[in-house]
UniProtKB/TrEMBL annotation:
Keyword Amino-acid biosynthesis applies: no
Keyword vocabulary terms for this entry: Signal
Gene Ontology biological process terms, A to Z: transmembrane transport
CDD domains (alphabetical): PBP2_TRAP_Dctp3_4 (cd13665)
Superkingdom classification of source: Bacteria
Transmembrane segments: none
Species of the source: Thalassospira tepidiphila MCCC 1A03514
Pfam families: DctP
Residues of the signal peptide: 1-23
Official protein name in the record: C4-dicarboxylate ABC transporter substrate-binding protein
Entries under InterPro entries matching the protein: DctP_fam, TRAP_DctP_sf
Length: 343
């Protein structure tokens, strides 16, 4: 009888432990560098978090900390998620040069063709080719924005000769290489610092998508925003990483992991692309309704920029090869994948 009682008691404890694990509730912190009204939070992170909260019946909750409100500066975000300071971050791999050598390929001239959805799907297709870059974190998404226009405080530019000598902001080293190839001077800084830099004359302008014009109030500072026409209308793009601390992810019960996994795959990458494509027109409208104007240069004028920056690809391939990466193959694969998804 005593043995039966012990067995029943043991079964009861096991059931309680099992139920407790299954019913575990977690709150995950999300840290990023833009404000709460920026599309990255309002149209990407918040809907994603809400969907997961609903699918988990409230067992997963999120606390979102915009504008670096957990401390530090934007280049520290990757370290913060890697080390567990934040559970999840949204950041640019380009803020930590050398850590993501393969992901850089999507920023190179001629790879991104102006459609964030197409490039995001290409990034998903090629995920095995850059997986080694992401071994220290659990990736939720890698993506790009719609592409960079050249936003200027005073001078209108139409060809590459017009930008020579100008100081232009960029967030990444590949962006710096492009600006140098044009004969301009790159100034590296996270995008939240751009408005002050433009207003004080530290830079003559910057390479950013129209998406950030509203949250950063850049329309008050821009005289000209320059882009091309049709496919390949932009001047490259930046890659972004939405990532979770690896140990934090592994600590979740399997059913909660499955919910996060289900909302972090190919469809999510496509949705992010649609978000960033969709917010560009708002920024354009704000420029035109403000003190500035959007200038669309001709294909021939755009080609002067593209021809000048072609050397950047060769430079990147040479460096990749020196690090044991087949740079030429990665560029070829990235271009083909993007083109396959571009309408």
């Amino acid at each position: 009888m005593k043995q039966i009682t012990k067995l029943l008691a043991g079964a009861a404890v096991a059931t309680m432990v099992s139920f407790g694990a299954h019913a575990q509730e977690v709150t995950l912190t999300v840290h990023h560098f833009l404000g709460p009204k920026a599309p990255a939070q309002s149209k990407m992170i918040e809907p994603w978090a809400k969907k997961i909260e609903e699918e988990s019946n409230g067992r997963i909750k999120f606390e979102i900390f915009p504008s670096m409100s957990l401390g530090g500066n934007p280049p520290e975000l990757y370290r913060q998620v890697r080390d567990g300071v934040a559970d999840i971050v949204w950041t640019l791999p380009g803020y930590t040069p050398g850590v993501f050598p393969r992901l850089e390929v999507f920023e190179l001239p001629g790879v991104h063709l102006g459609d964030a959805r197409a490039t995001n799907l290409a990034m998903w297709d090629l995920r095995d080719e850059y997986a080694e870059d992401l071994t220290d974190i659990h990736p939720l998404a890698v993506h790009v924005h719609a592409g960079q226009a050249i936003h200027l405080t005073s001078k209108e530019v139409r060809t590459v000769d017009d930008v020579k000598g100008l100081k232009l902001r960029t967030p990444t080293r590949t962006g710096s290489w492009v600006i140098e190839s044009w004969g301009a001077e790159p100034v590296g800084m996270p995008v939240p610092a751009l408005p002050q830099a433009m207003s004080l004359g530290v830079v003559d302008g910057g390479l950013v998508p129209f998406e950030v014009v509203p949250p950063l109030k850049l329309a008050e500072l821009i005289s000209y925003s320059v882009e091309g026409e049709g496919v390949n209308s932009r001047f490259g793009t930046s890659t972004f990483l939405f990532a979770m601390n690896k140990d934090r992810y592994e600590s979740l019960p399997d059913d909660l992991k499955e919910i996060i996994d289900r909302n972090s795959g190919r469809d999510f990458a496509a949705e992010i692309g649609d978000v960033f494509n969709g917010v560009e027109e708002v920024g354009k409208r704000m420029v035109n309704e403000g003190k500035g104007q959007v200038v669309q240069i001709t294909a021939a004028e755009k080609a002067t920029f593209d021809d000048a920056s072609a050397s950047v690809v060769d430079r990147w391939i040479e460096e990749a090869n020196s690090n044991g990466i087949d740079g030429a193959k990665l560029v070829e694969d990235a271009k083909a994948a993007v083109q396959s998804h571009t309408k």
